[in-house]
Amino acid sequence: MAEHTSSSIIIEAPVADVMGVIADFARYPDWTGEVKEADILATDDQGRAEQVRLVMDAGAIKDDQTLAYTWLSPEEVSWTLVKSQMLRSLDGSYRLRAAGAGTEVTYRLTVDVKIPMLGMIKRKAEKVITDRALAGLKKRVEAGPPAQTATDSAPPAGDPA
User: Fold this and answer.
1) Cross-strand bridge partners of residue 28
2) pLDDT at residue 60 in the model
C-alpha cells in the first residue's frame, strides 16, 4: 500500500461551515494559491460535485487534472485522480470532527508523479501541499462568508435600482 501524508488543524467554525467551503469548488481560486481554475464537470443527485477539473499552478509544477469526489458522510469527502498531465495517481480526503466549538480537519494525501522522484522528496512535497491546503482552508472559513461583489449584488439589467 502506498504511503500517505496526513495533517490536522482546528478551525474555529462548525463542521457544516467547513464542509461548505470544501464543497464550494467555484471559489477555490479565491483562497487556494495553486488552483487557478475549478470547473464542476458532473454532480450527484444531491447537487454535490462528483467530477471536478482543476487547473493548478504551483510555480514549477503546472497541471490540468480531473478528480472524482466521493461524499462519504457530512463529515468526510475523498477524491481520486481521473486524469492528469503530471500525476500517475492522487488520492486524498478531508475528514471533519467536531472539536468543542470548532472542527478538527484531517487531510490525507497520497500522490504519485509521472517523473521519477525520491520517496523522501515526494513525502516532503505532500506535507507542504497538505499544510498549505489546511492553512488556506482555515483562513477562508474563519474569515466568514465571502463578500458579495458588485456583480453579485447588481440589479438585473433594465431594473431601476
Assistant:
1) none
2) 62
- SS3 call for 76: strand
The continuous run of DSSP H or E covering 62 comes out as strand 61-73
> Exposed, middle or buried: residue 46 (CB in 10 Å: 0-12, 13-18, 19+)?
exposed
How many CB atoms neighbour CB 129 within 10 A? Answer: 19
Tell me the pTM.
Answer: 0.80
Closest CA to 80 of 106, 107, 51, 47: 51
**Per-run averaged pLDDT (10 residues), the chain, 161 residues:** 79 96 94 91 96 85 91 97 91 96 94 64 63 83 69 43 40
Listed in sequence order, the residues at least 6 apart from 100 whose beta carbon sits closer than 8 Å to its beta carbon are none
